Fold these 2 entries.
Entry 1:
Amino acid sequence: MKRFLAASLFFLCAPLLASAQWHYPKPEKGAVVDDYFGTKVADPYRWMEDVDAPKTKEWVEDENKLTFDYLSKIPFRDKIKKRIEEIWNYPKYSSPQKAGAYYLFYKNDGLQPQSVLYIQEGPGGTPRVLIDPNTLSADGTVALNGISVSWDNKYLAYMVAKAGSDWQEIYVLDLATGKKLDDHIQWNKFGGANWYHNGFFYSRFDEPKGNELTAINEFQKMYYHKIGTPQSADSLVYEDKTNSKRSHDIGATEDERYLQLYIGEAGKKGNMLFVKDMQNPSRGWLPIVTEFGNETGLIESEGTQLFIQTNIGAPRSKVVVTDISDPSQKNWHAIIPEGKNVLENTSLVDGKLVCTYMQDASQHVYFHDLKGKMLSEVQLPTFGSVFGFSGRKKDTEVFYTFTSFTYPPSIYRFDMRANTSTLFRRSEVKFDPEAYEAKQIFYHSKDGTRVPMFIVQKKGLKNDGKNPCFLYGYGGFNISMTPSFSSLRLVLLENGVIFAMPNLRGGGEYGEQWHDAGTKLHKQNVFDDFISAADYLCDEKYTSHDKLALAGGSNGGLLVGAVMTERPDICKVALPAVGVMDMLRYHKFTIGAHWASDYGTSEDNKEMFQYLYHYSPLHNIKEGVKYPATMVTTADHDDRVVPAHSFKFTATLQEKGGPSSTNPLLIRIETKAGHGGGKPTAKIIEETADEDAFMFYNMGITPKY
């Protein structure tokens, strides 16, 4: 294929307003100063934490006007948006979920704001709409957050969230008729409906005092709701009046013989786990794990045996079995010992343990019998990511979705008895995988650690140091970045942009040790890994620092913010999204305290404060430094990483960096949207188009459209 980077198609243009004087809003500065172990830290924009304050709203309005005025003058912005719409406009399906005789799946016709839940009877049945969230709001900002089918396949509980908030409401409908019942649960967050008999367990917080989008969430409680009764009649089944930052979850095994209680705590890794035998409930909650520090989960039960996945004594995880007579650790028996690769997930289907492993950030699936013997491996098309393989114990078929960078999501049906995969539904996206190539390389970080990185680019692209590159990272919370297809990425790829994604420490790609190496007093390793990835791409002539964009969201937004303030010369464009920018106060909002297991807090001790202060993006912006062209993105309903992080960071960046740079330092604040989940299609396309246009324009590049 001929390279697109011909002079006639891919040429330089003079960045808009390059020599103009930027006139940023000048918000008032308060006199707030905090004392951390004798160090005085000013927080002049503390008032921006009140998102409802008139002056905060006025500042948001002024900033958005500046940003959208700038974006509107980019000549190819609308063409990029149109191209993204063309690429995005194809039917998208989820893997079916089997519920007795029913098959449930999500479908989006192409540009619908939200995906629609369908149901059909039998594999050849006619699909009908079960829940269409697009009818729940005029602007498509009400999203269907998840579903849960009762063990008898009679009821379906579904979770609804508004405007991107993490708060959700639970409703119930009759699965056979689709009739919505009167049941309605409020103030649920980070949980769903866990069925047991004629009702379900759920978690909730007390109704917030003050702004529900910023008020701290504590003293989570567990309730049981019986179908057909009001929430006011629900039974409180578990609470901890002493530990305000603990989280809880109660669920039942498929046979409903056992209840399982998970307990987590803000600032501590892992969970405690207890089980109750409902054939002998007088024994109470029996301890399986009574200390924090490791991840342990109950896979399922068979009679008196409990199958458990844990990383206790096994950083890459293992499967053990124990008996209800005494399920404590001293009676565990490992049936699938820790291996060289990371065991991510295990389910029990058709008498087999379905184990998903990760090897060098690519997933593999194996079947084991209940004694742990490996039976077979699922043959996947290439290196990539697998979603699905969930089912019930008597199911003889499961569905899964496979995807990779150049392999659009495809759904397969797996016959558990015949041990065969058949293609169930292929993606209809208009994409030529032969035009692109994906590879994995390994580079060395600052301390010599070997780090993997995926690189995706057009075939035949010459690595001469002149290619634009989009470097995306995360690096935290044991989350692994694995290969996946994104139609949003195609606008970049087809215009000669190289996409690179390193597997930074802090993630889970190599187990708990890899995660630990990027947390708390080791967090700098994550930034070093990202900086080394950028330097590698430049040294190997994939790109240059003048053609490099850094991007990441949430913890990845922190990553971009920390790296651009530590190394302002490292890139031409920075795109920090919904980032944790104030590392001294993040734990004081909504659910932020629960991130302390990765970050630590400024109140822990002097050493931890100094470490956070050293890299906190907000506190490391310096006067007189030329920062890269930056467009911060956030949303007014983000109640996970509250927008005040991005507000204070941007105000400080403009105040200190604005006079020294002709690069734009902007913030794009979405309305009626949150951290990202449930965002309607139109908003996704608009935001992506604006980010792409901003990047191209500030690199002096005109796309081919």
Entry 2:
Amino acid sequence: MEIFNEMDSSVSDPKPLKQAERYEDKNFIDTSKEVWNYSLLYDNDVQTFQQGTNYTLYKKFGSKPISVLDKEGYYFCVWAPNATKVAVMGNFNGWDKESHLLNPRWDNSGIWEGFIPGIKKGEIYKYHITGFEGRITEKGDPFANYWEQRPKTATITWQFDYEWKDETWMHKRKECNALDAPWSVYEVHLASWMRPDANNEEAYNDYYYIAQRLVPYVKEMGFTHVEFMPVMEHPFDGSWGYQCTGFFAPTSRFGEPEGFMHLIDELHNADIGVILDWVPSHFPYDAHGLFMFDGTHTYEYADMRKGFHPDWNSYIFNYKRGEVKSFLISSARFWFDLFHIDGIRVDAVSSMLKLDYSRSHGQWEPNEYGGNGNLEAIAFIKDLNETIYRDFPDVQTIAEEATDWPGISQPTFAGGLGFGMKWMMGWMHDTLDYFKIDPFFRSHHQNKLSFSMVYFYNENFMLPLSHDEVVHGKSPMIYKMPGDEWQKFANLRALYTYMWTHPGARLLFMGDEFAQTTEWNYKRELDWGLLGHEPHIGMQQCIKDLNQILVSQPALYKNQFTIYGFDWIDLNHRDECVIVYRRKGTREVDDLLIILNLTPEPRMDWHIELSGKIYTQEIFNSDAKKYWGTGNIYNPHIRTQNVNVSEKKYNIIVNLPPLAAIVLK
């Protein structure tokens, strides 16, 4: 008898094997048992899982609704290689730990599976695992698509039921997500962006309400993409999502998984791309999660010199184990495949690459070549990027990597790790350090602004002003700035203009766009009431206009990662803190000239020597009245003087407002 229920017509598996070819036991269905001996796995599925090359595990592992002999129910499949017994328990059997025992596969793969008739969508369950030396663990399903809302810890049987409406976006997103497209990313923590009760950390809007409010806001602000801090299920709000337990499930804090699909759909239909934070670097020690899954170190390294993360009191994935590699790359692929996302930002890449990360001498062991690189993690990252770009060539992978490790965003065939972009942490630190300085002393620190272009072309960089910069006593962006209230806002507008006109992509954390006056607190919503005050309205309008200029001026994005896109024009006026540079498009007529005056002193009739096309129009001035600037210093007409006609050299004469930036076209 041949029995097989195809779960997904897109799965390119071979013709289903007969039961006699799958198991030594020819008695495929034993209706006297409450767990039927049934498998969705082919031998090749198992072999590639073990080899670390099965990247669609989410299609067959976990709990899957199927029909067997006209019986509806759920098939369960879990990897617990050191278990001696695995049972499914839940409300359906009164949490009985013995009545529904899964069957171990005959091939010693450590996979336990079986079909339970009568189980329906929405059933709460866990695995009761008897492991090594009789150790008992009760675990949520690592492949579950839906979990109970914390503090509850069980998983829920589910089947996605959503009809996507983003065909137009999916067809054109190759252009929107390209490296020569404008990238202005709005980083969002879903819980605290806006709450139904502003100061109640237990109050959450659902995905549908968030879509109603967030999508038009991001569209109005002009951001091209949003980046969600981790939405994967996690037990502790204070981890901000970076301590995940559900790598295949959007958090239930905001409702059912289809709600998150709807949110992404609405963003796509507003021409906004979606990036997810993804954390393959570590996981927490919660009893219901991956740690000591079957009573042994299943997902994590057994050697705590590699397996324990001292910074986050968490555990590090064993990248050497094929099954773990298959699990992680399947997780990344799951979000691209089933949730239509446009990119992942991979968290804490530095900690993955280096065996001595946050470890002193004697706390780590060199690799086989005597170095500090984690060779298996490096291989995993390369395979991850190769897989994503092979299967989804119209997306991006982005590394949060803070060291000088070479080739992060270079292709693997050229010896790189294969990411599309890398966060430019050096730019962030240098820029904030510079703008914190009293303008009177800035003349001695100009290199902090100019140094970024010395190494910019080593990688495809994204400039991040992320959540990490406005927490833990670092102060909100506005209070990093020196001076009185007016100067603080002027400084911040100048910083943002520098950021938006610097080569590369850019990312801004929520609240920074209107100069939030308190540090970010995940327990409460943003201080939206500040938008009743002119300085904050002006800051918000400044960001809107910078985003509009970004998408309308090809010079700011067409060559943003090439040496052809940028020229220093004037770095010789350190004492006055005036810096001039040019952004270049594919045509000279598209070029822009950016002038920064980073002291409170207005500078009238300032001379700048140039060659080539003449700049005739001021298209942006961060000191404009609508931004809460003075509005007194501007350039209705750009004056010119010939210097050398044969060499097409000339001077332009402009007025420079205080603590401001202007953009000329």
